[in-house]
């Protein structure tokens, strides 16, 4: 019975890992930026504008 030779898999794991990490970080950064600038910042501005308007109305009622 002859033993068959199997080629060592040396660089495939490293290349695959780098590619997977690059894709994951790219998608993560894109989705995070989309959430931050597409949802969080506009909602924060809307909240701040609401409380600013509320404070102006309260100050106007007090005669300031």
Q: What does this protein look like?
A:
This protein is an all-alpha fold and 64 residues long. Helices cover 80% and strands 0% of the residues. The protein has one helix at 11-61. The longest helix is centred in the middle third of the chain and has 51 residues, at 11-61.
What is the average per-residue confidence, as pLDDT, rounded to a whole number? 89
Strand segment count = 0
User: Uncertain segments of ≥5 residues (pLDDT<50)?
Assistant: none
Approximately how much helix is present in the residues? over 70%
Strand content: under 5%
Sketch the topology as an H/E string, one letter per element. Answer: H
Q: What is the overall shape? A: rod-shaped
For this structure, the quaternary state is single chain
Membrane topology: Single-pass membrane protein
InterPro entries: Cyt_c_oxidase_su7a_fun (IPR014368)
Main location: mitochondrion
GO molecular function: cytochrome-c oxidase activity; oxidoreductase activity
């Amino acid at each position: 019975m002859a033993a068959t030779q199997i080629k060592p898999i040396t660089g495939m794991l490293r290349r695959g890992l780098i590619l997977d990490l690059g894709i994951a970080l790219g998608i993560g950064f894109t989705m995070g930026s989309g959430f931050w600038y597409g949802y969080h910042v506009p909602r924060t501005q809307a909240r701040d504008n609401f409380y600013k308007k509320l404070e102006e109305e309260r100050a106007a009622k007090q005669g300031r």
